[in-house]
Amino acid sequence: MVPNLGNEESPEPPPARKGARRLPRRESALVWWALFAAFAGAALWLQSWRLALFGLLTWCLYQFTLVPTLCRVLKREGYPCAERVRGRLFACAPNHQQLKNDAVWRLVGLRDPFQKGDPDPDPETGGVVHSPYVRGRLTQADRALILLAAVGTLVTLVSMIYGFR
Ligand SMILES: [Zn+2]
Fold first, then answer.
1. Ligand 1 center–CA 92 separation, angstroms
2. Coil, helix or strand for 85?
3. Helix 140-163 crosses helix 94-107 at what angle (to 10 degrees)?
4. Average pLDDT of span 19-41
């Protein structure tokens, strides 16, 4: 029997989809995609690379900080955290955030310079034990989109530097 650690760590694994549906609705991702489509359309229509860049930058910031998504850090019990968050860089709580920060640093091949030891150590209460490395691991989609958004941000910055001279 796994001791109950409170609501945050409730032992029954809620499937992410079901958990998400139970909560009040957020705006659909379609709203955002419509916005980006409008940017792309306007940039094409006006033949404006500046507008295109601005749209790209908005998309990158959206992926980093605004996209409605789930925390997905693996909980001690071994299933992904289904708390809703905004932005692929963010997690639901400070302990999950540190695991996620570490994963993002690893994504670019570095160690998190701010991390000291396991940010969310396992109290000796049982549950499936995963290393922080496994727990913070990003999904394929998150990884791909964070990298794409990083590349997009770089492209925007470089184009701005060269374009506005
Ligand atoms: Zn979480």
1. 4
2. strand
3. 60
4. 79
